[in-house]
Amino acid sequence: MPATVGAAVTTVGSGSSTSVALPAAAVPPLPPSVPATPAPTVVPCPKAVAPKVSRSPKPTPPPPVAAHRMVGGEALATPGLVVPPGVPAPPRVTATSWLVADLDTGEVLGGCGPHEYATPASVQKLLLAATMLPKLDPAQVVTVTREDLDIAPGSSAVGLLPGGRYRVETLWLGLLLQSGNEAANALARLGGGADGVAGGVRAMNEQARLLGAYQTHAVTPSGLDAPGQFTSAYDLALIARVCFANPTFRRYALTERARIPAQKAVRGRGFEIQNENQLVYRYAGALGGKTGFTDYARHTYVGAAERDGRRLVVTLLGAEPRPQRGWEQGAALLDWGFALPRRTSVGRLVEPGSWTPHRHRR
Q: Which residues bind substrate (predicted)?
């Protein structure tokens, strides 16, 4: 018997599947008022070849929300490259996603998968700074607890001592220069009120929503990996913009070295820490930023610089350190951004409080 021309429907049961041909008449045509929309062209991102790395499986990201991928402009809702027409190609980097934006005008100069979910690592500490810097008195002296030192073995730490008394400013310097995870716990606890660290993390997520960073969800204040913790290159730019608008943050981010005071009461010696962000030392006009690394996130980076009165920020996620380290990839993208004409844009960084899902529902 000849097969009937039509649509094939696959049904799956207990261990078997069958294909059944349906008559063409059974497939309803599209209404004439609904023209078929061609799929948008995805431009491949310029990629450098990275060496293969053995790693644990990454956490599964939440399902994408179409509206969240269009924050800042519809052109940003792509897993591929988005740059202004006619501009030079951006440099090849190993980062899985990145974005370059103007800190002052909010214009997005270009990006690769700007709204793709990724794991943040320690660049999440910028969300902690954006949330808690306005709340905490830098001159306040606080006591570090044993619970503050409950961090993953081998992860980055300043060397704070339980029972030690430190100024809040010292905690911030330990957080931003040395990426101290115990400093992150202490700052989140101090800013979290009666709920301690949990309250601090909740405040971080509230801050992310206020900024329009709807693809960011914090589970730990430090950025240490945890199920359900994600961000995007676009969201990081929103967060970084708030940080660099704060003069105290800018001072901390450009500090090259700081002294952690001795703790005589607990027999602890004083010592010096240095800024781990090489952009500070090696890039003309650097404003600072934040480095990050975990097995899940790989290398993550946020950096900003000023040139000829123009301040740009770069964010990148999922990078490998060869052939270039994270800060070097960031520097290359900053060079590319500074070479573009002013007012060049493919989207915008939304203003805090200006974007909410119900206002932009279609």
A: 290
For residue 151, give the CATH number of its domain: 3.40.710.10
> Is position 264 annotated as part of the catalytic site?
no
| Per-residue model confidence (pLDDT) at position 108 | 98
Q: How many domains does the chain have?
A: 1
Full-model pTM: 0.83
pLDDT value of residue 55: 52
**Residues 180-190 pLDDT 10s:** 999 999 999 99
Tell me whether residue 263 is in a domain.
yes
Cis amide leading into 227 (omega within 30): no
For 62-94, what is each residue's pLDDT tens digit? 888 999 999 999 999 999 999 999 999 999 999
Q: Clarify whether 122 is annotated catalytic.
A: yes
User: Is 322 inside any structural domain?
Assistant: yes
Q: Which domain holds residue 219?
A: 66-359
Residue 10 belongs to some domain of the structure: no
Q: Residue 293 pLDDT > 60, yes or no?
A: yes
User: Is 47 annotated as contributing to ligand binding?
Assistant: no
Active site includes 179?
yes
Answer whether residue 46 is part of any domain. Answer: no
List 125, 156, 232, 345, catalytic entry: 125
Q: Which of 179, 222, 232, 345 is catalytic?
A: 179
